[in-house]
Amino acid sequence: MRTPYITIDTYKIEQNTRAIVNQCKKYGIQVAGVTKGTLGMVEVAQAMIRGGINWIGESRLDNIERLRKSNIHTPILLMRSPHMSEIERIISLADVSLNSEYEIIKALSKASLSKGLIHKIIIMVDLGDLREGVWPNELLPLVKELITMKGIEIIGLGTNLTDLNGTIPTYENNKQLVDLAEEIEEKCKIELQYLSAGNSSSLKLLASGKIPKRINHFRIGEGILLGRETIGREAWPGTSQDAFTLYAEIIEKKLKPSLPVGEIGQDAFGNIPGIEDKGMMTRAILNIGRQDTNIDGIMPKHSNIEILGATSDHLLMDLTKNQSLKLGDTVAFDLNYGALLASMTSPFINKVVL
Ligand SMILES: *Cc1c(COP(=O)(O)O)cnc(C)c1O
């Protein structure tokens, strides 16, 4: 096998999806399976579909295009707010987009009208995490301007918490979304079919039974891919945390001092290394580096080996306590979401679907 590589266990992804979809179903919540952490991998989307999702969430048009070309007909939700420079493409690739800007929605409307289409939108409301969304007091005026607009249909409201600033989903902020929806329904005489409140950070609140009744849609990435909720990163019941494993190969193994020799200046990334003297050390170099993944987000599966550092193409490990690993062996790593995202995006990491 060409190294480095990442294995993608589609059966585990399917099982993880099923566990989360079934739990959400109990509370009347539909799930969009979010594939963006895997570069919109077709096999991952298919595993999620087998596991019961009824929407796919993707943030990149190229990924959506690939999914469409692979005959995936599940409705696709564009997760990142649309950009003006590709409005036409957005309309033809995504069934639904998440929006917060009047000018963009107007452009979507114009483009879909000219094609005889109706583009569905979910309006994002910022409930405090300060990423995308209209501020609550701007929601009603915006919707009032949109209800007469042709070529678009407002199918719901959404919010995204925790992602940027860690604002935790609570009954109160979810209820605020419900209240805003009800105010709009009453004042604008429209029906909002979907209230899309959560990402993986809402799973704990869901399990505690504290999601207000009208919330009926979640967009779940990490929970499915890595089997974790994202407030405390606890393993989610009924899911595996190792659907993805990263492997790199030992290309040098030598007994060397733990302390560098000579006068010490900045390393390749401008940092001055602070290194503890541990005497002589069995040091290995693996053929993976910062150009391939987020080194801070990978954890060796062997508990008795340790990452010492990395440069663009090299990962240094301490093998002093595990002498059985030899030159040419591969070392396996678990990944966090950031490392998964980077690994799946790297052209240098071979993708192996199990
Ligand atoms: C990425 C993303 C999600 C999925 O988040 P997870 O924490 O991976 O579940 C949900 N909603 C939006 C808008 C996103 O961009």
From TrEMBL:
Keywords: Isomerase, Pyridoxal phosphate. One of its GO terms (molecular function) is alanine racemase activity. It comes from the Bacteria. Transmembrane segments: none annotated. Its cofactor is pyridoxal 5'-phosphate. InterPro entries: Ala_racemase, Ala_racemase_N, PLP-binding_barrel. Pfam families: Ala_racemase_N (PF01168). Gene3D superfamilies: Alanine racemase. Residues 8-224 form the Alanine racemase N-terminal domain. The keyword Isomerase applies. GO terms for cellular component: cytosol. CDD domains: PLPDE_III_AR_like_1. This is Putative amino acid racemase.
